[in-house]
Design goal:
The chain is α/β, with parallel strands linked by helices and 360 residues long. It contains 17 helices and nine strands. Helix content is 45%, strand content 11%. β2, α1 and β3 form a beta-alpha-beta unit. Keywords: Hydrolase.
Length: 360
């Protein structure tokens, strides 16, 4: 269905290759549909015992959704309720749910940039996932950078990260490396690219039914090579500050800390959308008590409100289109963000029986 997704079955392994290198494999609707089509077909196929998803490029596994498409749709006069945007997010989140509960080993080679929608097609559920990172991995949920929020199940997996790491990653949108991904529980294995030929041979020669165990044995000696985690080094500060209970309280706590980490974090947060940081905090708080389907349904509601609000369109304009890096956030400061404005993002858009993800 998409020229940017190649699917094949070899030796009992379903292989999905993302091949849109010029856009860092940013997901289009056609790509989402192609991945979903293959996974749905292989789910009940006895000839497929495991799935591997990877990139054709060294630079990126997947940098997220196609945000230029989002912007172009909005600029064309189509609101947040447009059919194209509705279809994209509904089908992307349904794909995330399919992956989370996939009944076969689902192996994601998370080499290079892994952000946003790339996390959605690699995280999976604990019963199926095999998430491999490398020294080139650059991982983030950077949505607050563009006035969005960490979606594709971010409310589920960020809220279940150790301590306050989920709040830190979601509110700052910072990029982390392989060691950090492993520490935060967002990856399972480390495989240096210097040994990639051996991993490629393993993938090609191991029957699908034995692949997950073979990979675990292969990567075990490499774990220490991932290096030290910056998240681990700053864990006490992260838990102290980002466990404060609200974005305003987090910022106030950081201001009492003159460490380089706290000051850098304040600088980063000062560039993010104040409104969407507050929405993100509330989303992660709520996500901690919801299952995967309810998290995705809640995120789907927030998407509609977000595009109708327009914050994300301004963020994309400033950081991706015009590249002036001067987004005009509304409101412009945390002090101006009201609780009512935050809670409006969580108001139901559809009755339960009509929700586009009601069948999850």
């Amino acid at each position: 269905m998409s020229e940017h997704v190649h699917s094949s079955v070899v030796n009992g392994i379903g292989l999905i290759v993302l091949d849109r290198p010029k856009a860092l494999n940013s997901l289009s609707l056609a790509m989402v549909r192609s991945i979903a089509q293959s996974l749905t077909a292989w789910r009940g196929d006895a000839g497929v015992a495991a799935v591997v998803i990877r990139s054709s490029s060294e630079k990126a596994f997947c940098a997220g959704g196609d945000i230029r498409f989002f912007y172009d749709v909005a600029r064309a006069g189509l609101s947040g309720g447009s059919a194209l945007l509705e279809d994209f997010f509904t089908e992307e989140y349904a794909l995330n749910h399919l992956i989370h509960f996939y009944p076969k080993p689902y192996i994601a080679l998370m080499d290079g940039v892994v952000m946003g929608g790339g996390m959605g097609v690699s995280q999976g559920g604990p019963d199926c996932r095999v998430r491999i990172v490398t020294e080139r991995t650059k991982m983030a949920m950077p949505e607050v950078n563009i006035g969005l929020f960490p979606d594709v199940g971010g409310s589920y997996f960020l809220s279940r990260a150790p301590g306050a790491l989920g709040y830190y990653l979601g509110l700052t949108g910072v990029t982390v490396n392989a060691a950090d991904a492993l520490y935060a529980g967002l990856a399972d294995h480390y495989a240096p690219t210097a040994d990639r030929p051996a991993l490629e041979d393993l993938l090609a020669s191991t029957p699908g039914a034995a692949l997950a165990a073979a990979i675990a044995a292969y990567v075990a000696p490499h774990l220490a090579a991932a290096g030290d985690s910056t998240l681990a080094a700053n864990r006490a500060a992260i838990d102290r500050h980002f466990g404060a209970g609200s974005v305003a309280a987090i910022v106030a706590s950081l201001r009492t800390d003159d460490s380089a980490f706290a000051q850098k974090t304040l600088e980063v947060m000062a560039t993010r959308s104040p409104l969407m940081m507050c929405v993100t905090h509330e989303l992660i708080r709520r996500g901690a008590s919801l299952d995967v389907a309810d998290c995705l349904r809640l995120e789907r509601t927030l998407v509609r409100h977000n595009f109708e609000n327009g914050e994300v369109i301004e963020g994309i304009r400033a950081l991706v289109i015009d590249k002036d890096n001067l987004p005009q956030w509304q409101p412009s400061s945390l002090e101006e963000v009201s609780e009512a404005a935050v809670q409006r993002f969580f108001e139901p858009v559809w009755p339960d029986y009509a929700h586009p993800l009601r069948h999850l």
